[in-house]
């Protein structure tokens, strides 16, 4: 990475007291590292001892000379941090711009005036705050508008473990350093739309300030060069990190975040709240079980809004936000609810609904390949496969769930967690569909309840598609239920390698307004005021809209927009998308399964995870002409019926290399078949498989059938050279569960 521009590496404060500091070892290391990477560096240092005495330009000049000696560009500056405008002006006059403003420590200098709190004087307090907090404010303010105008800037605030955790004798220093974190968090919010990112580091590194209190071997392990790489990465234009806090030292880097207990409501409506109320609930107030991790002020305040609603409803002290009763009134009762069937739903639609849905998930006439989904007169007019969620979604959206006995909850607490859709035939472009929904299972996740809603959709009594909605009811957990279910269609992590294909697509500012016309009328996606109540700065895109975007990316990339090849899709919804942001879908092909990960291009935030799409084999791509096709087809049906159970029992991947012509070394007729009973609900793949099988059997098609018919003993085939085994041969003992009655390999 060489994409650095103008960087200020700097030090301290001058008036009104004679406070002078030397560039610290960290500041020097940053300056040299930025210089080596091609940045133009302003080295600011007044020079002085650790208490602020003395003055010298030698330190800054020496660093400038070192940078220039290595072919870099640098200039010294000796102004005080209270003259931040002069420091920044030096950068502008010399290099024409300011890109990286590493405050407090990248403008690097530092002083300590350690005293126990009782002995801390006004001067001790003021000097530390003027250097570390006010100094960072002044220099950052001087650079801010220049960064805004050029739509780019990177700011690093340097806090300290003393600021994060406190430390004896450093009340002044701790307060200033934690103040920097608050400043950085606000700058990250205000600067985000201008591409100005602000992060905070809390480094541990040896320096002149610590050489008198640390042994030499420890100082050697805490070199400043072990901190600089983090700073350079956070300042790089490719780094999207913003508003984060990192501890770093000795070659280790860790990210910190806030954690908060679920808490406890300790007052009744229209009643005074007493210290005794607090005392009696203290253990629950301090219980970090199922703790939340608020990332912004909206998430923090959202909990208080929920508290107010509970108090207004008269729940008061008796209300426990971690229990089902707190959020549902009569609570969650799996025994009563599981297996219950919802009222049957009918959905009548025309070609107009198919076209409107296609537009809602980003299709455009700008791409000629998409016209078949947008023009009813097209010779191959088709309905997008993911339209299959539309006739089924009303069971979740129209209050049907909360009407089921044993499922009393506040619908506003419902979140869409995961989605599975499987098609049994291409969707018709018009007609009337009938959907039958039932409660497949209910899980207790502690902080909430997960409801698995199965919906089967029929056309003229023929099954067309199956949906499984996995919905999370916030605050409805704690009823003592199970945490997992074999009825849930599982997500599958993407392979640990570079994606095979990446597709980017831009959502329009009106994407949510357009998608909602397909039936999801939630005002969260259109009304700014309603979105703000939910903690969002603007209306967000529907999760199923992102789902549709990603699915059509895969359909085009790997199926040529042939809807007959679409079999199923599974996704987990992670974070929302703002209309107008770009979606990036990363894809990995493993046989007929396409793993996918969908992100927001601008922020890198993951939108869909654990996702995959299963495709039917392309016409002509099957292992045609093999007698063993029938056997594997039957095995495939067995996996479809018992997949989850088999995965749990077997936990293995089996490969076959089936050859023609009676010889197992006939590579020209080599046909791979893979049975995956390790991931998801299991799958049978024909054709190349990019994963790794636990055990692979190499056998001629004719000999395979001899074994199946019981005419050839597998052991004799092995010793006769007609059957070869590669990998973990002991895994073959588990094959009986999937091959009995069909094959004996």
Largest sheet: 10 strands, antiparallel
* Helix segment tally: 22
Bulk shape: globular
Helix content estimate = 25-40%
Structural class: alpha+beta
**What is the average per-residue confidence, as pLDDT, rounded to a whole number?**
82
Distance between the termini: 54 Å
Strand order within the widest beta sheet: 10-13-14-15-12-17-20-19-18-16
Contiguous low-pLDDT stretches (5 residues minimum) are: 11-23, 103-110, 312-330, 665-669, 741-745
Computed over alpha carbons, the radius of gyration is 32 Å
Strand percent estimate:
15-25%
* DSSP strand count: 25
Describe this structure in words.
Strand 13 and strand 14 form a beta hairpin. It contains 22 helices and 25 strands. Helix 1 runs parallel beside helix 2. The protein has a 10-stranded antiparallel β-sheet. 30% of the residues lie in helices and 23% in strands. It starts with 5 loop residues before the first strand and ends in a 6-residue tail after the last helix. The chain is globular, with a radius of gyration of 32 Å. With 745 residues, the protein is an alpha+beta fold.
Layout of secondary structure:
Elements: E1 6-9, H1 25-36, E2 40-44, H2 58-69, E3 73-77, H3 84-95, E4 100-101, H4 122-150, E5 153-158, H5 161-165, H6 171-191, E6 196-203, H7 216-221, H8 228-235, E7 245-249, E8 252-256, H9 275-280, H10 282-285, H11 297-312, H12 324-328, E9 331-332, H13 334-337, E10 345-349, H14 351-360, H15 390-397, E11 407-408, E12 414-423, E13 431-444, E14 448-459, E15 462-474, E16 501-506, H16 511-515, H17 528-533, H18 543-559, E17 566-573, E18 582-590, E19 593-600, E20 606-615, H19 629-650, E21 652-659, E22 671-677, E23 683-686, E24 695-700, H20 701-708, H21 714-719, E25 723-727, H22 736-739
Parallel strand pairs: 1-2, 2-3, 4-5, 5-6, 6-7, 21-24
Antiparallel strand pairs: 7-8, 9-11, 10-13, 12-15, 12-17, 13-14, 14-15, 16-18, 17-20, 18-19, 19-20, 21-22, 22-23, 24-25
């Amino acid at each position: 990475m060489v994409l650095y521009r103008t960087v200020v590496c700097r030090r301290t404060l001058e008036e009104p007291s004679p406070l002078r500091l030397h560039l610290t070892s960290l500041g020097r290391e940053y300056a040299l590292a930025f210089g080596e990477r091609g940045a133009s560096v302003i080295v600011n240092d007044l020079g002085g001892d650790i208490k602020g005495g003395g003055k010298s330009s030698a330190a800054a000049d020496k660093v400038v000379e070192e940078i220039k000696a290595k072919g870099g560009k640098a200039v010294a500056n000796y102004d005080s941090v209270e003259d931040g405008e002069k420091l920044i002006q030096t950068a502008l006059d010399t290099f024409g711009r300011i890109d990286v403003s590493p405050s407090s420590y990248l403008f690097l200098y530092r002083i300590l005036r350690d005293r126990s709190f009782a002995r801390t004087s006004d001067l001790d307090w003021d000097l530390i705050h003027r250097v570390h907090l006010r100094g960072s404010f002044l220099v950052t303010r001087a650079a801010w508008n220049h960064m805004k105008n050029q739509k780019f800037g990177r700011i690093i605030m340097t806090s300290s473990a003393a600021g994060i955790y406190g430390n004896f004798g450093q009340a002044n220093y701790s307060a200033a350093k934690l103040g920097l974190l608050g400043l950085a968090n606000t700058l990250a919010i205000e600067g985000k739309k201008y591409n100005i990112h602000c992060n905070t580091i809390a480094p541990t590194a040896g320096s002149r300030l610590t050489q008198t209190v640390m042994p030499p071997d420890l100082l050697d392990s805490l070199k400043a060069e072990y901190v600089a790489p983090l700073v350079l990465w956070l300042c790089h234009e490719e780094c999207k990190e913003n508003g984060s806090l990192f501890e770093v030292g000795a070659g280790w880097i860790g990210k910190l975040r806030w954690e908060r207990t679920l808490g406890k409501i300790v007052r009744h409506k229209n009643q005074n709240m007493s210290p005794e109320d607090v005392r009696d609930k203290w253990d629950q107030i301090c219980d970090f079980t199922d703790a939340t991790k608020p990332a912004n002020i909206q998430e923090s305040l959202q909990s208080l809004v929920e508290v107010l609603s509970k108090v207004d409803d008269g729940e008061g002290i008796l209300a426990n936000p971690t229990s089902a009763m707190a959020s549902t009134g009569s609570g969650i009762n799996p025994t009563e609810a599981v297996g219950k069937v919802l009222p049957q739903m009918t959905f009548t639609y025309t070609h107009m609904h198919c076209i409107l849905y296609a537009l809602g998930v980003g299709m455009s006439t700008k791409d000629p390949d998409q016209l078949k989904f947008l023009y009813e007169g097209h010779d191959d007019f088709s309905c997008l496969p993911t339209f299959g969620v539309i006739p089924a979604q009303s069971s979740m959206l129209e209050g049907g769930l909360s009407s089921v006995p044993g499922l009393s909850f506040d619908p506003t607490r419902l979140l869409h967690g995961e989605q599975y859709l499987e098609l049994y035939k291409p969707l018709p472009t018009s007609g009337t569909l009938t959907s039958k929904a039932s409660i497949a299972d209910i899980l207790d996740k502690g902080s909430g309840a997960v409801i698995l809603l199965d919906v089967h959709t029929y056309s003229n009594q023929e099954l067309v598609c199956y949906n499984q909605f996995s919905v999370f009811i916030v605050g409805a957990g704690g009823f003592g239920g199970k945490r997992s279910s074999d009825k849930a269609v599982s997500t599958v992590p993407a392979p640990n390698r570079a994606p095979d294909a990446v597709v980017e697509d831009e959502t329009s500012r009106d994407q949510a307004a357009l998608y909602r016309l397909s039936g999801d009328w939630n005002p969260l996606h259109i009304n700014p005021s309603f979105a703000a109540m939910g903690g969002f700065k603007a209306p967000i895109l529907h999760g199923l809209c992102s789902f549709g975007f990603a699915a059509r990316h895969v359909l085009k990339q790997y199926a040529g927009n042939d809807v007959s090849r679409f079999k199923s899709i599974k996704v987990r919804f992670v974070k929302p998308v703002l209309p107008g942001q770009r979606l990036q879908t990363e894809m990995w092909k493993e046989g007929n399964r396409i793993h996918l990960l969908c992100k927001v291009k601008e922020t890198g935030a993951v939108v869909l995870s654990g996702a995959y799409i299963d495709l039917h084999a392309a016409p002509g791509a099957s292992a045609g002409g093999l007698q063993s096709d029938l056997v594997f087809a039957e095995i495939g049906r067995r996996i479809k019926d018992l997949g989850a159970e088999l995965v749990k029992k077997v936990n293995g991947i089996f490969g076959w290399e089936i050859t023609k012509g009676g010889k197992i070394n006939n590579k020209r007729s080599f046909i791979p078949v893979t049975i995956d009973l390790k991931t998801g609900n299991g799958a049978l793949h024909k054709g190349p498989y990019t994963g790794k099988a636990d055990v692979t059997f190499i056998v001629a098609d004719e000999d395979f059938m001899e074994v199946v018919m019981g005419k050839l003993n597998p052991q004799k085939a092995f010793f006769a050279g007609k059957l070869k085994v590669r990998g973990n041969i002991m895994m073959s003992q588990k094959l009986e569960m999937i091959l009995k009655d069909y094959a004996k390999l």
